[in-house]
């Protein structure tokens, strides 16, 4: 759905390439393909073998790197990052890659995720003399690397990674190598590919298709890749791993043309819609999805139910980024700017409106009202995920529990609040079956903490809600 309006913001996206003469340009296109994962800021760090240079700024990828900016950062290796805005967490200083210089050389870091023990580590590091230049938890890793007692950078990074907890897909660049690491639970997606002789890593496989790279494999939980002119080396920084990929990657965040663990996102979302139709059938005339992430689920619902799929809602793609507006009222007004009902399609019809999730419920109510104003006689809302009852501490900007409508209201109460004729959510078992990943309950296989409250990592006492600190 329209995450920037309803309060469910994308996390971040990372990209890296080693061994290509046009590393800056390739990274630009890679970040452009990951733009859906973050639209507040973008940055690229490039190594020419002697030094690391960084170009970054606030805005979309095309805005940040226009007017010849890329010409100032040239080399054969690069990492890039796109990020989203969190309340109180904007600002140029938090745009990545973060770049640090020392007498021993430079290091640039890009991160997708959130460290749940970042505050505890910051207190410890500050007591030891560290001074932080940003409010991003990503900076914690740089300080841990620098303070490590090991001599070799690889060992320093391993030692630092053993101290951070939570969700992280790190890409690290120095003058002479690139390192890639995924947290022991593999909460965030990260893949490895090849572009000729060059190695490429990206948050999503759709980036490989855009730059012409060939997918090789997913980076494994607890794995550290070291890439340099001698090739690629894979090592483990921990053997205590338990894959728990974020379920919302399949439900909402990833692009439909991406694959995670061999599962295509579009296919997974169609299956979610089919399972939803099996569990929550309804007599209706048309099925429509809320653009863009719910379209696949709506198609699946229509195929399974036999009710025709129609384009009942149109997204205006030329509206400004309303999520940057500071007040909720302005973000809510953006619904009318971004979505329009197709009157001739819904007028006089019983409509099934398929969406991926409900966070606060405000946007759902506005869309239901729009469909009624366009002449829909009934509006039946079907959600292709279970109710979101718990905040996420791993890099998704969900609200505090008090602001999650499903945490304080029953399904019937939510139905009344959004003014729908009926409302049904997909069951937890239906979600697992539709995605098709191995799942052993609680959180083994995939993370369902926002639905179940069972987190795959320890949640530290001073872990704050994502909207109160800067993630990524």
Brief synopsis:
The chain is built from 17 helices and 23 strands. With 472 residues, the protein is of the alpha+beta class. Strands 3-2-4-1-10-9-11 form a 7-stranded antiparallel beta sheet. Strands 5-6-7-8-12-13 form a 6-stranded antiparallel beta sheet.
Question: Would you write up a description of this structure?
Answer:
- The chain is α+β, with helices and mostly antiparallel strands.
- Helix content is 29%, strand content 25%.
- It has a seven-stranded antiparallel sheet. The protein has a six-stranded antiparallel sheet with strand order 5-6-7-8-12-13.
- A hairpin with a 2-residue loop joins strand 15 and strand 16.
- Helix 5 crosses helix 6 and helix 9 runs antiparallel to helix 16.
- It is globular.
List the SSEs and their pairings.
Layout: H1 3-6, E1 12-18, H2 23-33, E2 41-47, E3 52-58, H3 61-64, E4 77-83, E5 98-102, E6 105-115, H4 118-127, H5 138-147, H6 153-161, E7 166-173, E8 178-182, E9 191-195, E10 198-202, H7 206-211, E11 214-218, E12 223-228, E13 231-236, E14 244-246, H8 247-253, E15 259-260, E16 263-264, H9 265-279, E17 286-289, H10 295-305, E18 313-315, H11 328-338, E19 339-341, H12 343-346, E20 350-355, H13 362-373, E21 378-383, H14 405-408, H15 411-418, E22 422-425, H16 428-435, E23 445-447, H17 449-452
Parallel strand pairs: 14-23, 17-20, 20-21, 21-22
Antiparallel strand pairs: 1-4, 1-10, 2-3, 2-4, 5-6, 6-7, 7-8, 8-12, 9-10, 9-11, 12-13, 15-16, 18-19
Helix pairs in contact: 5-6, 9-10, 9-16
